[in-house]
Design goal:
Blueprint: H1 2-8, H2 15-29, H3 37-56, H4 60-72, H5 78-81, H6 83-99, H7 103-116, H8 124-136, H9 141-154, H10 165-185
């Protein structure tokens, strides 16, 4: 791998170009032909890096290919032995599947994270994508609000299902006072 990098960089290839060439070669080799555990984890990490770069340039098809390839290089007990890498790969997979419109596959990846995360904080990236998906999917806005309130409750913030009119008026007046007060100070 190091020899390939050294050979390509002096010839004007950017680091990103080299990365994409490398992950393409890794995908062609395939996970079933690589048996060394350190090499498998390196290949998974390289594919995650390429998937993030592809996502940032909105090349979701390439990002999905990279993230799926990266997941294929994880060991059988990946959640136990390489937790952070597994979490990062699946979170990236969720984002890319959603951006690509692969909602059923995204749901499977969401389940993978929600069922294996070590804590609430580790589910937040997945929950953010799920919330965005609910919010933007047809007539599921009520479900999105309910899910968003569920997440906020995990942070200790609770909201009444049907707030009393007095509370609404009180909050509107407080907001008006804040807006009016900030305009008077300007």
């Amino acid at each position: 791998m190091e020899e390939l990098l050294q050979a390509l960089l002096p010839h004007g290839y950017s680091d990103d170009t080299v990365l994409y060439i490398v992950v393409d070669l890794i995908a062609r080799v395939g996970a079933d032909r690589v048996h060394d555990s350190e090499t498998r984890l390196l290949y998974a990490q390289l594919n995650l890096t390429a998937a993030k770069k592809a996502t940032n340039t909105t090349d979701f098809a390439s990002a999905l290919t990279c993230v799926k390839c990266g997941i294929s290089f994880l060991p059988a007990d990946y959640w136990q032995n390489c937790y952070r890498l597994s979490l990062d790969l699946f979170n990236q997979c969720i984002l890319v599947e959603w951006a690509s419109g692969h909602i059923e596959q995204m749901t499977t990846s969401l389940d993978e994270v929600f069922n294996n995360a070590n804590g609430f904080e580790d589910t937040l990236r997945a929950a953010m994508v799920k919330l965005a998906c609910l919010r933007m999917t047809g007539n599921r806005i009520s479900e999105a609000f309910a899910y968003g309130f569920q997440i906020l409750e995990q942070f200790g913030e609770s909201f009444p299902a049907a707030p009393e009119t007095g509370i609404i008026v009180q909050e509107l007046l407080a907001t008006k006072q804040l807006v009016t007060g900030s305009q008077n100070e300007s």
